[in-house]
Design goal:
The longest helix is centred in the first third of the chain and has 38 residues. It is globular, with a radius of gyration of 18 Å. The chain has a single domain, classed as Cytochrome c-like domain (Cytochrome Bc1 Complex, Chain D, domain 2, Orthogonal Bundle), CATH 1.10.760. Helix content is 57%, strand content 12%. By secondary structure, it is α+β, with helices and mostly antiparallel strands. It contains six helices and two strands.
Length: 132
């Protein structure tokens, strides 16, 4: 009987440490992702992710971005063209794909999807590899 509280305590401690490591991993990924965003995406989507209305869609508080993780991965890899509606506004442009590693794609998407009012779970390099 005395072992049950000890086991429960260890379970809580392990869960807490695992959560901390996951959060730390997402934080590190977003920091790397910011550099990738600035180098590749900020020219069109602007430093603050707000884009240019009617020309370049916003990434900040973006319903379109947050609705489909796999689509977001594919758009970074393959680009996007044609009509899309973002936050109620129609866009019909072209975005080139980027030659980035799986880790770089996950980092930039973790930055974009956890900045400017966006909040989501981490995208892993394995998820990017699977979407390729």
């Amino acid at each position: 009987m005395k072992q049950i509280p000890i086991i429960l305590s260890l379970l809580v401690l392990t869960t807490t440490l695992f959560s901390f490591q996951q959060d730390d991993g997402l934080k590190a990924s977003t920091l790397r992702g910011k550099e990738i965003f600035v180098a590749n995406c900020a020219t069109c989507h602007m430093q603050n992710g707000e884009g240019i209305e009617g020309v370049y869609p916003p990434l900040a508080k973006s319903d379109y971005l947050m609705a489909d993780k796999v689509r977001a991965i594919k758009q970074v890899l393959e680009g996007a063209s044609g009509p899309m509606t973002v936050n109620g506004i129609q866009y019909n442009g072209f975005m080139t794909g980027f030659d980035l590693s799986d880790k770089e794609v996950s980092d930039v998407l973790n930055y974009i999807r956890n900045t400017w009012g966006n909040k989501s779970e981490a995208i892993t390099p394995e998820e990017v590899k699977s979407a390729r």
